[in-house]
Structures are given as C-alpha cells and as structure tokens.
Write a structure and sequence with these properties.
Layout (H helix, E strand, L loop, with lengths): L1 E5 L3 H12 L3 E5 L3 H10 L2 E3 L5 H4 L5 E4 L5 H13 L5 E4 L5 H12 L4 E8 L4 H4 L2 E5 L2 H6 L1 H7 L7 E5 L3 H29 L7 H8 L8 H12 L15 H11 L5 H13 L5 H14 L8
Parallel strand pairs: 1-2, 1-4, 2-3, 4-5, 5-6, 7-8
Antiparallel strand pairs: 6-7
C-alpha cells in the first residue's frame, strides 16, 4: 500500500523503514535534506516539496504526519488540505491534543478529506518491536489503512485498535502517557530509596534484573531501567532535569474537568517541574519559616 510519511525525525524515520520492510511504497518528506536522503537510501521516494507527494501517490492518497504537535502539525495539515482531494486520508500520528484533533477533523471533513488520529507509542524501539497504536476516526477510513497499521504494529493482531471516533485515538494516548508518568516516578522513587540504604550496598542493576522476571512490577519500563543501570548505576553525567511533552498536563487538566481524582499522575507531573529548578524559592521560604517559629538551623550559601 502506498503512503507518504511527512516528518522524518527518529520516530518518523523508523516508521518509514518498517513500512518499507513490510513491502509498502513510501514517499518521504522532511524539511531536512539529510533526512530525506537517508530515507531514499532505505528505498523510499524522496519529495523536496510538500506538493510533490501528490504526484507519487494514487487515489485515495494516504498521508501520515509525524511532526511536533502544535503549530507544526497545524500548518502541515492546512497545507495538505489545499493539496489533497476528497476521499484522501490524512493520519496524525503525533502527540496532538485531542481537542485540536476534533477541530481539525471538522475542518478537513468540510473538504471531503478523511482524518485519522493515531496515538503512537514505541519510541526508538518501534522499528524492532513494533508500535502500539490507538486509532480514532471514521470506520470507513480506518478500514482502508489497516494494512499500514498491521505492518507497524508488533504483530498484525496485537498492539493496535480502532478505539473510537475522531479524537479518541489521541485521547487514549494522552491518558496512556499520564499513566507512564506515574509508573516512571514510582520506579525512580523506589530505586532512590534502595540506593540510599548504604548499609546494604545494594546492586541496583541486580535488583532490576530480579524484578524483571516473575515480579508483579515487571514491565518494559523496568527493562529499560535495567539497561540504564547496567551502563552506570551512578548515572554520572546525567542531569536530574526531566522534561514533559504535554500529555501529562493534558491528562491532569482532563481529570480536573471530569472531577476524577488522579493524585499519582498529578504528583508525578509536579515532580518533573521540581527537577527543573536550579534553586527553589519555596524551599528557601520553608527553611526561613522553620527558623522563625522554632529556631531551626538554616544552611547558607556561604
């Protein structure tokens, strides 16, 4: 099946490779010429202008967009809406906010273009392991791209599914990432407690390997944690600065809107904010208050 891949970052490039390996004909476009050339070396057809993709695809055209959420996605979709024809299909495989997806689906529907949102998980391991894909959109359009989904998934029958109408795919992926925040934070806190018990001189990599098999806390995240600990248990050279790409925030906002308590996800997001503070004014003020009411000692910079 023919498909155009718009955006050849790590994930888009790996998805392109997996599609090519699965026998699909792929047209690859990116703003980075080097990325296009790399895709061509794998067997893709390179496009230097977005308009070129229409010349290489047969109707109904299928275009998979893998660019950063926000303005890059918005601008790309608006350009594609002027280039594509009725019954063509646009897939947004990035981490867009589902509310934007609902609006974009209506915008493209007015032009007769099908819009499918695919919440995609798998990261840099997706090329080898396959991608988990949560698909939203009209059944008519989703049915047409099933060969692509089966190729990208861990197997033709696992790791993907049509979860609901437009917006549902990105909504499910948003909550997926919120859960991921909580799981990561729990592992991080647990291993810090283990490391701090100096009298036992615990081997953290050994413990991670023990837990990977048979334990109720085993997971792929634990596998990756074990990989990191095998390389360097002290994590030297890594700054404790943790980014968030937005989905955790959106999950917390949604929980508030729905009156759903989500303390673990919320606190894990707050922990990421704390990690970015070189110096906490709040912590300074706490120390000052303790000194004021109890005469407790204050550590100074001097």
């Amino acid at each position: 099946m023919d498909v155009a891949m718009i955006g050849l970052g790590k994930m888009g490039a790996n998805m392109t490779k997996r599609l090519l390996q699965g026998g699909h004909r792929v047209v690859a476009f990116d703003l980075n010429e080097t990325a296009i050339q790399a895709a061509e070396a794998e067997g893709a057809i390179g496009a230097r202008e977005l308009a070129e993709i229409t010349n290489h695809l047969t109707s109904p055209r299928v275009v998979w967009v893998m660019v950063p959420s926000g303005d890059p996605t918005e601008n790309t979709l608006r350009q594609l809406s002027e280039l594509l024809s009725p019954n063509d299909i646009i897939i947004d495989g990035g981490n867009s906010n589902y509310k934007d997806t609902l609006r974009r689906a209506e915008m493209l529907k007015a032009k007769g273009i099908h819009f499918i949102d695919v919440g995609t998980s798998g990261g840099v391991w997706g090329l080898k392991e396959g991608y988990s894909m949560m698909v939203g959109g009209d059944k008519e359009a989703v049915d047409q791209i099933i060969p692509i989904l089966k190729t990208l998934a861990p197997s033709p029958s696992t790791g993907w599914g049509h979860v609901g109408p437009s917006g549902a795919g990105h909504f499910v992926k948003m909550v997926h990432n919120g859960i991921e925040y909580g799981m990561m934070q729990a592992y991080a806190e647990g291993f810090e407690i283990l490391k701090s018990k100096e009298q036992f001189a615990l081997d953290l990599h050994q413990i991670a390997e023990i837990w990977r098999f048979g334990s109720v806390v085993r997971s792929w995240l634990l596998d990756l944690t074990a990989n990191a600990l095998a390389e360097d248990q002290e994590l030297s050279g890594i700054k404790g600065w943790v980014a968030d790409s937005g989905e955790g925030r959106w999950t917390v906002f949604e929980a508030i809107d729905l009156d759903i308590p989500a303390p673990i996800i919320t606190l894990s997001l707050m922990a990421r904010f704390v990690s970015r503070q070189e110096e906490s004014y709040a912590a300074k003020l706490l120390a000052a208050m303790r000194n004021q009411f109890g005469g407790h000692a204050i550590k100074t910079d001097k």
